[in-house]
Design brief:
single chain, about 475 residues, alpha/beta, 11 strands
Length: about 475
């Protein structure tokens, strides 16, 4: 298998496969990096997935990896593997802009813990993934860097907010993407790009070091750092590298080590959560995934988990309440971007944020009841299988337009944000290509701290249904044929 991404996305080697080949001396980190930089040069100017590319720095690091291998040292399981890092995850040499002009020069003093752990495993950061302002939207666009385009169809969204990293991984510009998921921001882009995405449990992976600034409660409870990759195996391997307690993140937990899943193989399937309607291609993807799991020995039952509607509504009301507090225009040094301002206005108009501390407190109290119900449900059905977005992949700016559009977006995402509301792990995995030529996907939701259950089921779906990859442009195919 070639290390050259120009051979076609469906033949790209996995991240850990590349690392193993570099460690064994079968190829070099420099060659692996050059192949990825070639793909960046060919695809990124059009797709705008990576906001900045660290070519010179990456070459120096690749040379260092090759020197270590030549000296008989082991650089780690991701030796020389190029990864991308979302614009809101700290790199000590690059501004953490969060897609916002007001932080265009905000270079932190330290790398995020997840970055430190990937670097320690030998990975090389090749670029930063684009995102909407502060990750607020379900579409990847901002006034600082512009829009990221979907290589499957430029007239469809990449979703968001980890859209840049998802496009980078899907097109071979990076082998793994570090992103985060507050309301589907990993699983949604993964589903729109035909790759795999992991949202870990709350506390499993360090999110961010807490400095002196207060952190909204919804950010503490709903948002996690996670992973984008082209295979479930790469998600699994990378999770084992980045997971674990971190002194700087008070939400991170000292959890038991990750082992192979050996629990009950029972799956609750919700094809159309709350009966709100599901696109035929999406529903067919759920059916294919359920059949794949049944064939792999999982017990399948069509049954809906409890309180999805209430969880989705509470998630939005709590999130919008905190957004209004933390993004108060009077306290920002620069205004939000055009689209982000519209999104905040429309979402808060539809959500009816809490106006009193008592109402806000009652909402959090109600969350405990819903979490207890889900815990009981997942005692019987450890896995929940359902759609990511219940509609077809929409056009860009589908999440703008007014309160009605905001309501429609939430209906399509009701199962996605329920996962965030409860802090559960979930894996998005492709299920094929629909009649519109776009990828289809499902999410597999595990119990609290049950990442291995979700990954085991996702691996069985992937084994049965295979992988998908975006089309390679004709000019790229022609350039490849001349080599």
């Amino acid at each position: 298998m070639s290390t050259d991404p120009a051979h076609g996305d469906d033949r790209l080697p996995g991240a850990f496969e590349l690392g193993a080949r570099v460690r064994a001396g079968e190829t070099t980190a420099a060659a692996v990096l050059d192949a990825h930089l070639a793909r960046i040069a060919a695809r990124n100017p059009e797709l705008n997935a990576l906001t900045v590319v660290f070519a010179d720095r990456a070459r120096a690091l690749a040379d260092a990896v090759d020197r270590r291998v030549a000296a008989g040292e082991d650089p780690g399981p991701l030796a020389g593997v190029p990864i991308s890092v979302k614009e809101n995850i700290d790199l000590s040499w690059s501004a953490t802009t969060e897609g916002w002009r007001g932080q265009a020069d905000a270079v932190p003093a330290r790398d995020a813990t997840v970055v430190e752990r990937m670097l320690a495993a030998g990975a090389i950061v090749v670029g930063r993934g684009n995102m909407p302002d502060f990750g607020m939207r379900w579409d990847t666009d901002n006034d600082l860097f512009g829009r990221t385009l979907n290589p499957w169809n430029r007239r469809r969204t990449t979703f968001g907010s980890s859209g840049g990293d998802a496009v980078s991984v899907a097109t071979g510009m990076s082998a793994i993407g570090l992103g985060n998921d507050f309301g589907g921001s990993i699983r949604l882009p993964a589903s729109a790009l035909g790759i795999c995405g992991l949202r870990p449990s709350a506390g499993r992976v360090p999110r961010a070091r807490v400095r002196e600034q207060p952190v909204a409660l919804t950010l503490q409870r709903f948002s996690v750092n996670g992973l984008l990759a082209r295979s479930v195996a790469d998600l699994d391997g990378a999770l084992r590298l980045v997971a674990g307690w971190d002194v700087g993140d008070p939400v991170s937990a000292d959890l038991p080590a990750l082992h192979a899943y050996a629990g009950p193989k029972r799956v609750a399937v919700t094809r159309d959560p709350l009966g709100g309607g599901v696109d035929p291609d999406v529903g067919a993807g759920v059916d294919r995934a359920a059949a794949a799991l049944r064939a792999a020995g999982w017990q399948i039952e069509q049954i809906e988990p409890p309180f999805i509607d209430e969880a989705a509504v509470l998630w939005r009301r709590l999130a919008c309440t905190d957004m209004l507090w933390s993004l108060d225009p009077a306290t920002l040094p620069e205004p939000l971007g055009r689209a982000a301002t519209r999104f905040l206005r429309d979402s808060t108009a539809a959500a009816q944020p809490y106006r009193t501390a008592a109402d806000y407190g009652r909402a959090w109290a109600r969350r405990a009841v819903i979490e207890a119900a889900w815990r009981g449900f997942q005692q019987e059905f450890p896995l929940v299988l359902g759609p990511v977005f219940t509609g077809a992949i929409p056009e860009p700016e589908f999440d703008l337009g007014g309160p009605d559009e905001a309501d429609a977006a939430l209906r399509g995402l009701r199962l996605v944000v329920t996962v965030n509301f409860l802090g559960l792990p979930a894996v998005a995995v492709p299920t094929g290509v629909g009649g519109d030529g776009m990828p289809t996907a499902v999410q597999l939701i595990g119990p609290a701290h049950g990442e291995t259950a979700a990954l085991a089921a996702a691996r069985d779906v992937e084994a049965a249904l295979g992988r998908v990859s975006p089309p390679v442009p004709a000019r790229s195919r022609a350039a490849r044929s001349r080599r």
